[in-house]
Amino acid sequence: MNQGFLENQFHLSERGTNVRTEIMAGLTTFMTMSYILIVNPSLLSQAGMDQGGVFTATIVSSIIAIILMAFLANLPFALAPGMGLNAFFVFTVVLQMGHPWQYALTAVFIEGVLFLLLSIFKVREALFDAIPIVLKKAVSVGIGLFIALIGLSSAGIVSSGDGVILTMGNLISKNSAVFFFGLVLMAFLTAKNVRGALLYGIVGSTILALILGVTSFPQGTIFSLPPSLGPVAFKIQWNNIFTLEMFSVMFTFLFVDIFDTVGTLTGVATKAKLLDENGKLPKIGQALLADAVGTACGALLGTSTVTTFVESASGVADGGRTGLTSLSTAFFFFLSLFFFPIISIIPGAATAPALVMVGLFMMSPIVDINFDDFTESIPAFLTIAMMPFAYSIAEGISFGMISYVFLKVLTGKQKEVSPLMYLLALVFILRYLKPLFGF
């Protein structure tokens, strides 16, 4: 691509940037979010999915969504399968509810199509406005604790069994040594504002894992053609889609995806000074469209919900202002397709610290919750607590919504409850009553 084309396509001068700045910003964004290339296949493999296939699906779906973001919206945002949503996919839908991973992919696909329709017909704003802000904040915090628990559990730092719900695991082992080394390294680099802190932490702890014998070097070359999508692509199941349980699963994916995406877009756009005089983000519809298409394509290819990454803020901080930043990120994703042999040696103990750190990053909205208003703080607390305690994001959302509606009505504050909230609370109540009445 020549300079003139890039200028005309991305309006570099208008936004006070240049090609070199945009490419370097894209590299920075890639470095800060590249841990997903390791963590996502590792997590989804616990649902029985082929790790190599998920690796390829993760990259290809990310590239599709990022290219759409670059050319349709001209915004410096990158997308990939989101943390929290992949955990819900594995640990709630598959391992807790007992559904096959194909069922979970179907729910993600339906959510992506519905998100696409909501974006096209601009219904998303109504849905976003209908949910109280306190529950939006609480969901982020609860998912943070849930992800951190998964990380601690996968590293063996906490465990369950022998009649104990949760207990301290084995702190004196090779796995725990790898975990704590990675956690300290990530924490130190993050505190020093080093770009790619999580990736460097994963690499460092993997090196220690190789030294300790927790993992071993790949046989043969470290480069290869991308693993086949065959084991995971186009595995949609159409049976049992018209059920309350499928609605509950699909709605949870949709709920988290919408609020995570809108929150990320708003926050990063504010940092990049891309909002207009009315505080709105130009071409937000196109940005949401890229997100929705990425999710639908990702489900077809074989991965969990694709969403806009808050790590895009790192590229913005390095000067990224246009879609050329995101296009550059897509290029680095493409290059990583050929490194699966070396990525596949990374053990769970090396990725677990990244889950704990991501959990920390998702906790920040808790400072915005008003704990003095118990009609808001109690539903928020139930939302936050039930996610790790029930080991389910869906249960946290259900308890939060139901308790919010009941408390507001019982205290005479029913005017604060939107009609859609009543409907959603009723759906979640019916979901709990289903085994009792058999409907």
TrEMBL record:
Record membrane topology: Multi-pass membrane protein
Keyword Disulfide bond: no
UniProt name for this protein: AGZA family xanthine/uracil permease-like MFS transporter
Family: Belongs to the nucleobase:cation symporter-2 (NCS2) (TC 2.A.40) family. Azg-like subfamily.
Alphabetic keyword roster: Cell membrane, Membrane, Transmembrane, Transmembrane helix, Transport
Membrane-spanning intervals of the chain: 21-40, 52-72, 101-121, 133-159, 171-190, 197-217, 331-361, 381-407, 419-437
Pfam families on file: Xan_ur_permease
InterPro entries associated with the record: Azg-like, Azg-like_bact_archaea, NCS2
Domain of life from the UniProt record: Bacteria
Subcellular location: Cell membrane
